Amino acid sequence: MSISRTSVYLDYNATAPLRPEAKEALLRALESPANPSSVHAAGRAARDVVERARAQVGALVGVPAGSITFVSGGTEANALAIESAKAAGVERIVISAIEHDAVTETAKVSGLPVEGLPVDNHGVADLGWLAQAREKPGKTLVCLMLANNETGVIQPVDKASALVRAHDGWLHVDAVQAAGKIAIDFSTLGADTMALSAHKLGGPQGVGALVAGTRATVTRRLHGGGQERGRRAGTENVAGIAAFGAAAVAAHQGLASLAEQAQWRDALAQRVKAQGAIVLGEGADRLPQTLCLAGEGFGSEVQVMNMDLAGIMVSAGSACSSGKVKASRVVEAMGRADLAPFVLRISGGWASTEDDWIKCGDAWLAAWKRIGARRREVA
Ligand code: PLP
After folding, report:
1. Is 143 part of the annotated catalytic residue set?
2. In the 8-state DSSP scheme, what is residue 17?
3. What are 250-276's pLDDT values in tens digits?
4. Mind giving me the DSSP string for 45-114?
5. CA of 13 to the centre of ligand 1 (A)
6. Residue 159: exposure state from Cβ atoms within 10 A (0-12, 13-18, ≥19)
7. pTM to 2 decimal places
8. 347 alpha carbon – ligand 1 mean position (Å)
9. Do the beta carbons of residue 252 and residue 307 sit within 8 Å?
């Protein structure tokens, strides 16, 4: 089902619509199916497609093609990083309190001791805590995402990396939400590994990448053929990878125009704040297209349903895969457990317009007014 022109899609942090460049690359690759491991001409052409995409994805984050391992998405990239760090001898894991479940759940089953890195009330990781934690003996894996999926708050990864490196630790960065929305230079971040996902930046679902720096050895997770230089067995998703590459190029070119979307986001924020809504993470650097707001007493699920009825597609702060809405763990970690059940996430992207943001604000304010009137009737 394609999204109708009358509805407004502002749920890019859940998944971004496929970019036309990505669609074209996807269809082109599907038209001439071949296994990149085949030695015949068609196989060699498929290999070229994969290697071109590898260079394109690498260019998005400032690394050579050889640093990229293609996987099935952000979840697998995070898992591969954690398993690689474990194989390299890390003895414990520190994860920020706002990491995605893909990181927290994988850390939990790793068999290693896990500690939570707290965030302040803006949703920014507490580096003072990290500095102290680093004094403990033993090689540590620190997982700190680059930008949070609910609030858009950007984390001080470069500063964290100095602390981690000083103690010979391993820093893994989940950049699934940041990639294609802000400029990323992997070497400036100083990370060892970084997770990327195509569908968050306008590529298709089911393809992602693990970026590995020179200090990191990527372990073999899936066994079988020697694909991805032995790091991940299984015939490559050639069409998905081609589309990921094309989306990465387009996203890179579109960074400046996406940055301008912050003004539409902030205009919406001003309107809803004037009527009593609270914006989370506003005091920190954020992705330009993410807005996390809370309307006290206006449950996340009810907000999402009201918006949907008005033709506006947005998310609760945290949507789990079952489709049920849970109170936001991220907002709780920010010290606002009182607001966690009332959070709404609005996230635009490459095809969003100013009109989308205005309509979204109109719909939210109309619903907020109705809820307020109902509450006054009951009182
Ligand atoms: N990490 C973050 C921050 C995410 O927002 C998501 C998806 O929502 C993932 C990882 C998982 O990515 P994928 O859906 O590609 O497995």
Report:
1. no
2. P
3. 999 999 999 999 999 999 999 999 999
4. HHHHHHHHHHHHHHHHHT--GGGEEEESSHHHHHHHHHHHHHHTT--EEEEETT--HHHHHHHHTTSS-E
5. 9
6. middle
7. 0.96
8. 15
9. no
